[in-house]
Amino acid sequence: MASVEDQIREHIAAEFMGGSPASDLLDDTRMIDEEIIDSLGIFLLVTFIQERFGVEVAPEEVTIENFETVKAIADLVSGKSVAS
Predict the structure, then answer these.
(1) Alpha-carbon distance 39 to 63, whole Å?
(2) C-alpha distances in angstroms, 70 versus 9, 26, 79, 84?
(3) 40 Cβ contact list (under 8 Å, min separation 6)
(4) With a threshold of 0.70, does the pTM exceed it?
(5) How far apart are CA 45 and CA 62, in angstroms?
(6) What's the pLDDT score for residue 19?
């Protein structure tokens, strides 16, 4: 099974990068600064995370810091998975 990072990266590439390969998105790419995602994109990612990984993202966790990079998103998911 693909890692959490790989699943997130594949989803972002498919939904937000207009056909660019997922390999173009590094774990530390600042997606908001690079204009890959915006505020609406963050909310779409929240829905994806909740459905794909079966975790609940609280409103106070929907911050730029938690959705700035693939690694930040994966850390959020991993922290929730451990807590479940």
Answers:
(1) 10
(2) 7, 7, 14, 21
(3) none
(4) yes
(5) 10
(6) 84
